[in-house]
Amino acid sequence: MAIKVNKVVLVDEQDHIVGEMDKMQAHQKARLHRAVSVFILNSKNEWLLQKRADGKYHSGGLWSNTSCTHPRLGEENVICAKRRLKEEMGLEIDLQYLFNFIYKADLDNSLCEHELDHVFIGISDEHPEINEEEVKDWKYLSYDQLVKELDANPNSYTEWFKKMHKKVYRLLDDKLKD
C-alpha cells in the first residue's frame, strides 16, 4: 500500500527547492513543483500505458505514461520514480534518466498542473500487476498506434503525456541510431 504524501516540493525554474506546499493547494494556485514521469517499453518497442483510476484527484480515467508522481522532500528523483512504478504497476525495473522539462496545463476540477518533470525510461517485458486504487487498466502500443489514438482521441490522454511523448520518442529514436 502506498503511503499518501499530501505535500509537493516547490522549485524554481532551475529545480532549486524553494519550499513545500499542500498538493491540492499547489494545484489550485498553479505553483511550480517537482514531478517524475516513467516510460516503460518492451523488447518490441511498444509503450506501456496506464489508464488512471477514475477516483484520482485529477485526470481520472485518462491514459498516460507508465507511472508518475511527486517526489518527497529529500527523495532522489530516480528513487521516487522506481518507488512509484512499484506502487502503481507492481514493476521493479532499472530506469535511465532522459530529460526534464517545465509545463503548465489546466486540468479538470479547477486545478492546474505546473511541473518541472524529470522523465525516466526503462525496458521490460513483464506484465504489470496494477494497484487498482491508482490504475484502472494498462496496454502496450507501438508508437504508430499511439499517435493514431492520440490524433483520434486527444481528450482520452493526460495533458503531460501529450506534451512529452514526442520528445521521448525522438530521444529513443536517436539512441537506437547510435
Question: Can you walk me through this structure?
Answer:
This protein has 4 helices and 9 strands; from the N terminus they run ββαββββαβββαα. It has 178 residues and is of the alpha+beta class. The protein has one domain (7-177): Nucleoside Triphosphate Pyrophosphohydrolase, CATH 3.90.79. The strands form 2 sheets. Strands 3, 4, 5, 6, 7, 8 and 9 form a 7-stranded mixed beta sheet that branches. It starts with 6 loop residues before the first strand and ends with a helix. The mean pLDDT is 91.
Number of helices: 4
Bin the helical content. 25-40%
End-to-end span in angstroms?
40 Å
Return residue spans where pLDDT drops below 50 for at least 5 consecutive residues.
none
CATH class: Alpha Beta
Please outline the major beta sheet.
Answer: 7 strands, mixed
Order of helices and strands: EEHEEEEHEEEHH
Question: How big is the Rg?
Answer: 15 Å
